Fold:
Amino acid sequence: MQTYLFLAPTSIDKGGSSNQNFSFGPWAWPNKRIGIVHPRTQVSASAIGGGQQSHYSVLGVPQNASSVDIKKAYRLLALKYHPDVSKDSGADEIFKKIHHAYDVSHSFLAFATGSVTSILYADMINFGTLHEIDVAIHVLSNESARNQYDQALRHQDYTDRPSGGYWEYDFEYDDGIRTYRWADLRRKMQRERYWGRYHTGENFSSYYDEVEESEEETLDEERGPFAEVLRSALLSLFLMNTIGIHLSLTFSSLMALLDRKLDSGYKIGYLVAWILGGRGGVLLTLCLSFASWLCGKTSSSVVALVVIAVWVGSNVARYAPFPQGTLFGENMNALAATNRNFKLAARLLGLDSKLELSLLIPFREIKVECTIPKDDGTLASFVGFRVQHDNARGPMKGGIRYHPEVDPDEVNALAQLMTWKTAVANIPYGGAKGGIGCSPSDLSISELERLTRVFTQKIHDLIGIHTDVPAPDMGTNPQTMAWILDEYSKFHGYSPAVVTGKPVDLGGSLGRDAATGRGALFATEALLNEHGKSVAGQRFVIQGFGNVGSWAAKLIHEQGGKVVAVSDITGAIKNEKGIDIESLFKHVKETRGVKGFHDAHPIDANSILVEDCDVLIPAALGGVINKDNANEIKAKYIIEAANHPTDPEADEILSKKGVTILPDIYANSGGVTVSYFEWVQNIQGFMWDEKKVNDELKTYMTRGFKDVKDMCKTHNCDLRMGAFTLGVNRVARATVLRGWEA
Structure:
C-alpha cells in the first residue's frame, strides 16, 4: 500500500508529484519540527484514493459530488443519527462512520485540486475538520492551555508511539490534542498562503473562503435555540411580577456572574442593569439575553454597544422633549399618565435622577386577602390594597374605594396623585390610597360591614393618626369610616383622628360632605375671575351626579350659574334654559337617578361631554375625555372634579383648541383639605362651625390657584404642569430637608 510521508514542514511537488521536492521559502527548514506536530505522519493512499468509493456510499452521494453536496448530505445524516438526537442504540457507531466518511471525502476533494494548501490539508483526513482547526486558533491564544497540551503530547509521544517511531491514528484520541495539532497545521497553511501570494503570485483564497463559510455556519450552531432567549425573557417577567423588579434584577445579575460561559462584557452589562433598576434595568437584561444568542456569549464589543446605547438612551429620554399623548400609546392608564406628568415636572425642576426615582417609588404597597361569610352561609374572598406613597411632608392621606375594577396600578397612581395634591393644597400630608375589589351593590349592609372590619384587621398596624389616615372614596361613605374607626379602636383605643369623613356624631367635620364639590366651585371662581368673568350667567355641564357632582351643581345654581345638562349612571338629561337643581335633588332621592326627571329631556349619556356650554365639569370616572371626543368638546373651560378624567392625548388636542383645563390635583383638592380640618379638630378636641370650615376652604383654594399660576409663569407651562411642578417641588424640598442623601 502506497503511503505519503510528510515532514513538518514538508517538501512538496507543486505540480502534484509525490517524488519531487519543492521548498517554500525561508520557513521550510528540513527536518525541523514546528510546534508539536510530529516529525512523520503516515497517511494511507487508499484513504486518499481507492477508499473513497465506500465513503461516498456511506454519505449517499456520487463520487463527483461537490463540496456543498457533501456538506448537505453530512448535515442530513447528522440530524438523523447524532447520539443527542437519535434513540437508536447503535446511533453512536453509525455517526462515527458518517463523520469519518465526511472527513475523508471532503479532504480528498480538497486534495484532488493539487494545490499546496490541499496537499497539506490531506493530512487532516484522520484527525480533524476545518471547524476544529478554527476552534484551535482560540486555544492557541491561551498560553496555559498551550502548555497543558504540550505536556500531554510529550507524554503521548513517549507512551503511545510504537518503536518504529511512527504515530498511529486512534479514532478516540483526545479531542484537545487533536485540535491543537491541527491548529499548528493551520499556522503552516497561513504561512504558505502568505508565501504563495507574495512570492509565487498564486491565490489560495478558495480554501479560506470555505473556512469563513464554515465559521459563519458554526456561529449559528453555537447560538442555540431561540427558545432559550424566550425562556429567559419569560422568567425575567415572571420574577418581576412575583418578587419585584429589584429582586428580579438581583437574581439575573447573580446568575450572569456565575455563568462561566459569559465573558466580562456581559457581566458588566448585567451589573449596569442592576444599578439602573426599574423597567430600564429589565429592558437591558432582555437586550443582553438576545445579544448572547445573536452574537455568542463571548462578544464583549457588541455587549458594550448595547449597554452604552441603553444607558445613553435612558438619560437622553429624560431630557429629550416629547409631545403629550404620544409616549405611551393609545391605552395609557392612570399610573402611566401620572408618572409621565411627574417626570415632566421633575425635568422642569432639574431634579437629581436619584431623587426623582426616590420620589416616584411608593413607600409601601400592601395587598391582603379578605374572606368573609356571606348572609347565605357561603364564604367570599376579596383582595384589598393599600399603597402608601410618601410621608415626607406628614402622615399619608388617601381614600378607600370599593369597586370591582380596583387594581394595584390604579391604587398606585391615585396614591401618587394624593402626594402631589396635598402638596399643592399645602397641607401637611403625604399620599396614600386603598381599595377592595368588590361591587358594593352586590353586598348587603352586614356583608359590607364584615368586609370593612376584616380589611381593617389586616392593615390596622399600618395605619394610624400620625401614620396613614384613610377617608371615603368611590363606593364608601361616612358609615364605612365609622366601621373602620370602631375596629381600629379595638386594637389601639379610641382614636377618632384615624379616619376622616366620619359622621359628625363620631367627630366628623361640618361641611365635609360638600367639601369636594365646594372646592370645585371655589376653583372655578378663581379661574373665571382670572379671565374677568364670574359664575353667574355661565352655562355648565356636569358629568356625574354623585356626592361631588351634585354638590357642585347645587352650589353653582346658588351662585347664579345655569346648569344645562347633568348625567349619572342611570342616564343624562338636558334643559337649555337651566335645570332646577332643587327639584332634581328631590327626584334623585326618590328614584336614585336623574333618569325620568320631568323638567328636562333625556339625551345620550355618551354625548354629554360634547354638549354646548361654557364650563364642563367631569365629576365621575377617569379617562372620559380622550382623543376620540376631544375635538368635539365645545366648552371653553374644563374643571376636573374627578381624578384623571382627561387623557394626555386629549390634553394636547384641547390645548391646541385654546381650552383651559383646571387639573384634578388642584380642582378636586377641597375634600382632602376639609379632611385635614377634621383631623386637626379631632387632635385638638375642638370643633369648628361650618362657616369657619367653608371660609378656611375658600382661603386654601384661592391661595392654591395663585401658587399654581405663579409656578406657570416661572416655568412657562400650562396649569396642569404648573400644579404638578408646584407639588413635586414642595415634596422634593421636604425630602431633602429631612436628610435625604444621594
Q: What stands out?
A: The radius of gyration is 40 Å. The longest helix spans residues 175-200.
